Amino acid sequence: MAVVFEKTKMLTDVPFHYCPGCTHGIAHRLLAEAIEELGKEDEAIGVAPVGCAVFAYNYFNCDMMEAAHGRAPAVATGIKRVHPDKLVFTYQGDGDLASIGTAEIIHAAARGEKITTIFINNAIYGMTGGQMAPTTLEGQVTTTSPYGRKKEHCGLPIKMSEIIATLDGAAYVERVSMHDVPNIIKAKNAIKKALQYQIAGKGFSFIELLSTCPTNWGMTPADALEWLKDNMIPYYPLGVKKEVEL
Amino acid sequence: MAKLTINEDACKGCSLCTRVCPKHILELNREKLNAKGYHPIHCINMDECIGCASCARMCPDVVFTVER
Ligand SMILES: Cc1ncc(C[n+]2csc(CCOP(=O)(O)OP(=O)(O)O)c2C)c(N)n1
Ligand code: SF4
Ligand code: SF4
Ligand code: SF4
Ligand SMILES: [Mg+2]
Questions:
Q1: Residue of chain B nearest A8, judged by CA positions
Q2: Closest atom of ligand 2 to CA, residue A52
Q3: Which of A57, A113, A207, A213 could join A122 in a cystine, given CB atoms 3.0 to 4.6 angstroms apart?
Q4: Is this complex's ipTM strictly greater than 0.85?
Q5: Looking at the complex, does the CB of residue B37 fall below 8 Å from at least one CB of chain A?
Q6: Nearest ligand, CA of residue A212?
Q7: CB B4 within 8 A of CB B64
Q8: What is the pTM assigned to this prediction?
């Protein structure tokens, strides 16, 4: 018998601290497998966010740096410019990237930094107890939008992939989902492609993964995946938003 | 013929794997608690496993190793 699936060596033995059924664990695995499949285990350097993934540095089996909230793209810029031969990634949530860190992500993309950002869009601030994020859907109930997000009051959710795709420095931008196995496989291929754009020196690459937060959404993990499919995908369409020639 | 190895103590009982198994042979073991206090996943009929690794790809906590 041959091994068809085993835990990638790009993940450490430390068990994830995430809630049961949280898709952060899937996203970690996909990124780690993509790095291993590209043979870049010894070249990878990651930057962890503030948010539920704050302990990501314990899980990836490579050098990791912890950034202040939202500042991961700035920290990654510094790392990549000092070590242009390394494979540098940031891993960031939607509160981190689309709220407090909007300036950093936009300008890293605009400058065409040769880094890869993995963007976990779970439409909420998970770590702090489920507050509304810029990505929270219209009508979605959170602790700070108890009657549902209202357009008149908060505007509509920000589509980060579409914004990043307008910037000249962005080389590859794709939105994927993790709500079922075929989409999880597609998500890994997208992450791998984004890393390949970095390796080829083409510019900034960005993968948005539609994700769940069963705990703060107040759903079972299975219902959360269904909710993602039925509510997030219509507003956040999947697919490649920008792709320069590789 | 396929073989499933389960890292029971890593399981958080989220049941996402049970939904994607085409053979419906994964269940939480209500007779047991793991180190984290969850009912861990177990395979109720190993002979039926086709080694497709869907469970492993869906699991957020990398509980499964699959051989075929
Ligand atoms: C400067 C600063 N402001 C605010 C916070 C509080 N804070 C911690 S995590 C977080 C939001 C996290 O949400 P997100 O990035 O979506 O990550 P998730 O937990 O959902 O994965 C906030 C506001 C902080 N730690 N530092
Ligand atoms: S609070 Fe939400 S995002 Fe954070 S670990 Fe739990 S389920 Fe995941
Ligand atoms: S490998 Fe496939 S058939 Fe076997 S338990 Fe997992 S999902 Fe079911
Ligand atoms: S998906 Fe993983 S953590 Fe969830 S019940 Fe199945 S084996 Fe356990
Ligand atoms: Mg979030």
A1: B62
A2: 4
A3: A213
A4: yes
A5: no
A6: 2
A7: yes
A8: 0.98
